[in-house]
Amino acid sequence: MGRSQESFNKKEVRKKKDKKRKDKEKKKLERKETTEEKSSFDDMIAYVDEYGNITETPPDPEEKEEIQAEDIELSATKDDSPDENAGQHSGTITFFNDEKGFGFISDSQTKQSIFVHISNAEEPLAEGNKVLFEIGKGDKGPIALNVKIER
Question: In CATH, what number is assigned to the domain containing residue 100?
């Protein structure tokens, strides 16, 4: 007689896989039975009241309010607050490298460090100068534009 081609380890692995598959099938059937008993379409419905809150009770048709389509206004909200980056800012040059032509300004209001390049300045800059400038958006953060020495 020949020996079996299946080793003990292979048999054990096959048994575990079969058991796992049967357990999974059993759980699936149990889950299907419990959901069929409990759930119904009425349990899944939710209503929204006039304030936007989700409720389980349907709205009262007696309290229904008719709205004319002409009375509905559609528009974007207008932001009346001024942009913090708009207008003139004042500050002091904390660092400036003449050779490379760039430096940093400390904004007197926000204490934010803002990059400045010599190409955005109307006159030569040096450390310690008090300057007026506008803030713009650069590649790596805010940059100072239209930099003038404050007199």
Answer: 2.40.50.140
DSSP secondary structure string, the chain? -PPPSS-HHHHHHHHHHHHHHHHHHHHHHHHHHHHHHH--HHHH--EE-TTS-EESSPPPGGG-----GGG----PPP--SPPTTSS-EEEEEEEEETTTTEEEEEETTT--EEEEEGGGBSS---TT-EEEEEEEE-SSSEEEEEEEE--
Tens of pLDDT, residues 132-145? 999 998 888 889 99
| pTM of this structure | 0.43
Q: Tokens 């048999």 appear where?
A: 11
Q: Quick one: 95 and 145 in the same domain?
A: yes
